[in-house]
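Recall from the previous lesson that a structure prediction takes nothing but the amino acid sequence as input. Here we apply that procedure to Carotenoid 1,2-hydratase from Ktedonospora formicarum. The sequence below is the only information supplied.
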Amino acid sequence: MMRMMSLWRRASLALLLGYCVLLSSCAFPGMVETDAQLPLVKTANQQPSLPPASLPKDEGAHNYLTEWWYYTGHLDGEQGKHYGFELVIFQSLRSDLPPLYTAHFAISDLSRQRFAYDQRSIMIPVEKSKTQGIHASVGDWTIQGFNGHDHLQAAMKEYAIKLDLSSMKPPALHNGNGLITYGLGGFSYYYSRTRMSVRGTLTDHGQPLQVSGQAWMDHQWGNFLTLGSSGWDWYSLQLSNGADIMIYFIRDDKGNVISTYAGYIGNQGQDRVIPAQAVKNTVLEHWTSPTTGITYPSGWRVMIQDLGLDLTIRPLLKDQELVTTRTTGKTYWEGAVEIEGRQDKQNLTGQGYIELTGYLK
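The prediction returns the following tokens.
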């Protein structure tokens, strides 16, 4: 029996390695990777003949090329400790191969000024869940939820989380119906829960701490292909007046911004798309990774003329870089940030997360 299990594991590992080699060495479009999160959206109205996103029916897994459930957030713990966290599970379907699942888990330990992360991949045949909601897992890293009430669990060497999340606003269906198109790249369903309350346990170096805070969740799926030569800067911002903002700037392979999106979600959940020309973004500082030698922006001033907003955004920890070559072959910066600024004459503070991809030495 043990020999049979050993042979099965070897065969599974060989199949998984072969799958990863196929995807990476052949530059297979649509490989599960973090910097595939926001492909360039065509500005022309090219809506496919597909139904709009419907929740909670569409919270679970779909039979499409690419899908992910993405959570980031801020946590306050006992003894005055503060943390940021990221947990994401990707699902990739290709041909008749079993689904490939990839996961990243990161903790920004702001009290220690330390960043830790881990990564996993697994390829297993999974039957579609007969129950509603989210049921995604890579080993014992799990995301479960229904109708805006989610549970996250993950552990690495020095940190672990068991968190319960509840949505404080209606979900934001991007483009009004949660359906966007990438022209020849395909289509994507995309919605966000921009403000979720969080309670649970974070284990820090063996010490369980009760924590609470706020999180942001993205769920995206569809038959779309990734753009490997470009990158983007993605902002999720939660302001003290109850409003949330999502912004991304997509860059070409020369670093030029070729597309801008800004969405403003009011304190009652009303969603408004901001014209790209109203958004001005200025990089204030840079940081160079001692691990990879990559230089990233590390401080921003964001002005949105139509909203009277002037925000200064700074990372709470300089080094929040993930080198995920074992699972996605990619390196990116994703980290907790703090916000200060004004809207018209009102002073604002806030917190958020920023993702930076496509930066090279």
